[in-house]
């Protein structure tokens, strides 16, 4: 099986990967980064969202080998120095989850939004988060969490 090297959360990680294997599969099952979730597997739900070179990316539909020269960030890479990332803290403070299955993808999508628009309008937030599905219906709290994070400094 081919070996690839990925830059994940600032670390070079060498791993085997089958030809065409999804980034999601490599992250979860080869690198043990299970914070990124498998939802639909078809690019429709957003549960598998990670950052690739800062952009929100559906890892279920992205071949791992296509990310070899790029910087990948997963939910495990957000907290620093024992402190949650402001977006993680805002989601906690607003209790913006129920089962939590969608939360990783929500936070990573919101991260990409705030990197582009540090002070997004509600319309910007809705437009950006439209592809992230929450079966528990926590959308109003997700909105509140993103507003809260945007009100502070996003690292
Ligand atoms: S699991 Fe990737 S979009 Fe649903
Ligand atoms: S909190 Fe359950 S799917 Fe969103």
Quick structural overview:
The chain has 155 residues and is of the alpha+beta class.
Show the helix and strand layout:
Elements: E1 3-8, E2 11-16, H1 23-30, E3 49-52, E4 55-58, E5 71-73, H2 86-93, H3 103-116, H4 122-129, H5 139-151
Parallel strand pairs: 1-5
Antiparallel strand pairs: 1-2, 3-4, 3-5
Bound molecules: FE2/S2 (inorganic) cluster (2 copies).
One FE2/S2 (inorganic) cluster binds at residues 38-41, 43-48, 58, 60.
Key attributes of the depicted protein:
155 residues; alpha+beta; five-stranded mixed beta sheet; binds FE2/S2 (inorganic) cluster; globular
What report would you give on this structure?
The chain is an alpha+beta fold. It has helices at residues 23-30, 86-93, 103-116, 122-129, 139-151; strands at residues 3-8, 11-16, 49-52, 55-58, 71-73. It has a five-stranded mixed beta sheet, sandwiched between helices. Strand 3 and strand 4 form a beta hairpin. Helix 3 (103-116) crosses helix 4. It starts with a strand and ends with a helix. The model has no long low-confidence stretch (mean pLDDT 96). The protein binds FE2/S2 (inorganic) cluster (2 copies). One FE2/S2 (inorganic) cluster binds at residues 97-102, 134-136, 138.
